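This entry is set out below.
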Amino acid sequence: MKKWLPSNLMWLSLTIFIGSLLSQSSYAQTHSSTGALYSYGNSGYAVQNIQSRLAYIGYFSGQPTGYFGWQTYWAVKDFQYAFGLHSDGIVGPLTMTALNKATTNWTNPPTQHSTAQAAPTTASSPMDFGGFSANDITLMSHVVYGEARNQPFEGQVAVAAVILNRYHSSKFPHSISAIIYQPGAFTSISNGQAWRGTNSTTTSAVMDAIHGWDPTHGALYYWNPATATSNWVWNQPVKLQIGNHVFAQ
């Protein structure tokens, strides 16, 4: 019988992840002596300014709203990565300085405080999570926790990427839950390790994979060479290794 995740547990990891971003931002803006930081959940003209600058150099699409949502978070991470900064999706002094330098010809639009929006009331809608539901995010986060919590962050993203690669492959069901609960697909589901918990890091790894980071370059399978007992997996062409896992097409 399949084990379904209780509803309160399904939201726990997502709440932890979003809560950690909000609390980090609140703490930074209250206590930082090096300048304000802006992250997921913030709103106001300063956020609109950031969005406008990112749009000016092609990292943000659409109308700046003044609300720091997932689109802004991903735009900031992409900008940070491209400019050699720590890619955490938070606009601190270093990121703001780099953004200002990259947009020296940008013209500051008139103040439009009325455009700053409050946080969406449907934060769990699929649109907010790259087309996937909060339940999908939570399930993937639990699998990443059960399969790769002791692996480097790139290895955690890689496990999430494999799930998404299967989602987009005609060889697998077009449903996150169906992929995860497919018999024998994930050891952590079979042995219960996936239900031992989750955290903001594994959820962040899932979100980065959804955003398009695939360290495996399209792999559909992975396993730990030191513990794998299936002869079938060794017939798959290994593409690369990340941490303790090898990945195959």
The beta strands are 221-223, 238-242, 245-248. Confidence is low (pLDDT under 50) at residues 1-5, 20-34, 111-127.
